[in-house]
């Protein structure tokens, strides 16, 4: 996917991103050489996320609109409810984080050539997993990992990153488990980043960037950079 690169967008060093609302709706807000756990954490706290890399460069985005799933709006179809009741999947949390990322990286996606989940991405998010920010929900069947998702939890907000399914409904069951888990914690929204028909079928909807940034503040996502500067 061609991405315009402007010298004004370069994140030369550190974690000081430009304001999220300064980006054009369909252009990256910043470009960097690689990424660090500190940069990832700082970006999410400002409503920005890394997506796709090219020639060793990482592009940072704050799209307008932004796809968001309110947990109360999650659509659990009749067939999915049947699958959940059947217990065909063993659902676990944080037991195979790196494996989930690798499976997401290998999953084929319509309209995408390759994956943005490079070894650098896996290293950065794994470090955040070790620090308690990044989490995975996994669907297992007969001892094999067959579906799941991963993302970051900051404050009372969950930032979804990617999901995969090697068995029908495996990723949807993982998402249903995540929604139930977040409800218990008082977390009301999941950032889904990009608008897709699949996400819309599960209840996600696009919101304006201004509305998304307001949701972050309401959810107590801190803007402070003290924690983010630790790599």
Give an account of the 3D structure.
- The protein has 231 residues and is of the alpha+beta class.
- Helix content is 30%, strand content 26%.
- The chain is built from seven helices and ten strands.
- Strands 5-6-7-8-9-4-10 form a seven-stranded mixed beta sheet, with helices on both faces.
- The longest helix is centred in the C-terminal third of the chain and has 15 residues, at 170-184.
- The radius of gyration is 17 Å and the shape is globular.
- Residues 224-231 have low confidence and may be disordered.
Secondary structure blueprint with pairings:
Blueprint: E1 30-33, H1 37-45, E2 49-54, E3 57-61, E4 66-70, H2 78-86, E5 90-93, H3 97-106, H4 119-130, E6 134-141, E7 144-154, E8 157-165, H5 170-184, E9 189-193, H6 197-201, E10 205-207, H7 209-218
Parallel strand pairs: 8-9
Antiparallel strand pairs: 1-3, 2-3, 4-9, 4-10, 5-6, 6-7, 7-8
Binned strand content: 25-35%
General shape: globular
- Count of distinct strands: 10
Q: How helix-rich are the residues, as a percent range?
A: 25-40%
Distinct helical segment count: 7
| Cα-atom radius of gyration | 17 Å
Average the pLDDT over all residues and give the rounded result: 89
Distance N terminus to C terminus?
30 Å
Residue ranges: pLDDT <50 for 5 or more in a row? 224-231
Spatial order of strands in the largest sheet: 5-6-7-8-9-4-10
How do the SSEs run, as a string of H and E?
EHEEEHEHHEEEHEHEH
Largest sheet: 7 strands, mixed
Structural class: alpha+beta
């Amino acid at each position: 996917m061609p991405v315009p690169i402007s010298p004004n967008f370069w994140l030369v060093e550190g974690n000081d991103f430009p304001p999220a609302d300064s980006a054009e709706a369909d252009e990256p807000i910043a470009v960097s050489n690689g990424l660090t756990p500190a940069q990832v954490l700082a970006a999410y706290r400002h409503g920005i996320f890394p997506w796709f890399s090219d020639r060793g460069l990482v592009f940072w985005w704050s799209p307008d609109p932004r796809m968001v799933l309110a947990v109360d709006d999650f659509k659990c179809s009749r067939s999915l409810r049947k699958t959940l009741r059947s217990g065909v999947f063993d659902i676990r949390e944080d037991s195979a984080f790196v494996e989930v990322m690798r499976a997401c990286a290998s999953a084929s996606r319509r309209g995408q050539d390759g994956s943005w989940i490079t070894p650098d991405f896996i290293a950065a998010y794994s470090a955040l997993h070790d620090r308690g920010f990044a989490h995975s929900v996994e669907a297992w069947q007969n001892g094999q990992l067959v579906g799941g998702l991963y993302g970051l939890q900051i404050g009372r907000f969950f930032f979804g990153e990617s999901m995969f399914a090697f068995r029908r409904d495996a990723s949807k069951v993982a998402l249903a488990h995540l929604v139930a888990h977040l409800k218990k914690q008082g977390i009301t929204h999941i950032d889904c980043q990009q608008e897709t028909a699949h996400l819309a079928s599960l209840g996600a909807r696009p919101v304006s960037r201004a509305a998304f940034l307001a949701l972050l503040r309401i959810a107590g996502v801190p803007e402070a950079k003290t924690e983010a500067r630790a790599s």
